[in-house]
């Protein structure tokens, strides 16, 4: 009888097997989320040459007002000159991002391609980091499956990358800060101790110095956290006092600077009256009328120079309020238009006009899906669903009174994305009875 030879089967590692092995670990890895998101964004900046800004109007599109202030800081002229020419000290913008621009200008040159590449890369890093609070928020509220899809879609979808790869502005940083605050607010419900309250106050202070509009969500987030802790029998008074102290400590130096500079109290930034007038006046149609802005209007620029910033803003605010008081129904109609444009897209606002209807359709569809996800979350009593509700109610409200722009929705798009993924995941095919 011949000898039998026993052979051990050799298992080859196929590329598909290797990918699945990598994905099983990478799908919940913060490192891989952030690394791939950052690589895609920086890759697009380099390939598409988005760091090459137009040099028209003395490079104004490179950072707009914040770029102008950053240049003045880099040149040793202080926080000043938000428009063209020398116009003196300003509080037109909050301070944090212009100081970041100034630091980059100091090292890499004013309005150079190198500075643009660095600043857009920093924005891309902020955008990539946002994957982490998206994952943590979605996992807490809707489970790990929704968390994985939400974070990775934020990492790879091209529309998400637009603002961080094309605009030198605080938009991506604002989205990151708000996403962190949202997750931290959720975490405050169950966590004991003062550490999270310290972080809560500090993050809100940084947010206030980055994008003042984010403060619209501050009361709701604090009250929600206190209410949820009260229902669990957890004390909040010491934490609230600590967070408030940190918040005030963060913004006080800038408030003192404004008071010393202008001789009166200016809360963080000065330009609300001017923005209100752009959206409310003869010919108002619910959109941003850029031709009324001092950078686009010679007459308004002359008024700004003659009156000074605070007097100019006060005068524009007076004009806007007079227009509103003339006909409150007209203002209500304009506000309704602005609500529609905020969530459905602004008419004709596209580099390629023929694509505007398509872009607005996608924009509107994303908003509808997010509201649908919110309604479903509220109905099924998902954890944190009411916090999503207060965010969507409070944050955009100021833009219904002023004017909308697609950029103004980006700071809440991490949360909108979670709601969209959730409602899509809950879609079920209809079953027919036999």
Which key terms come to mind for this protein?
21 helices, mainly alpha, 434 residues, disordered N terminus
Description:
The chain is mostly helical and 434 residues long. It is built from 21 helices and no strands. The N terminus is likely disordered.
- Terminal residue distance: 62 Å
Shape: globular
Helix content: 55-70%
Total DSSP helices? 21
Blueprint (SSEs and pairs):
Elements: H1 15-26, H2 30-48, H3 56-59, H4 64-74, H5 96-108, H6 113-129, H7 131-142, H8 144-156, H9 158-166, H10 171-188, H11 195-208, H12 218-231, H13 237-262, H14 272-279, H15 298-307, H16 309-326, H17 328-344, H18 356-379, H19 385-394, H20 397-401, H21 413-425
Helix pairs in contact: 2-6, 2-8, 2-9, 4-5, 5-6, 6-9, 6-10, 7-8, 7-10, 7-21, 8-21, 10-11, 10-12, 11-13, 14-16, 15-16, 18-21
Summarize the structure.
Helix content is 66%, strand content 0%. The protein contains 21 helices and no strands. The longest helix is centred in the middle third of the chain and has 26 residues, at 237-262.
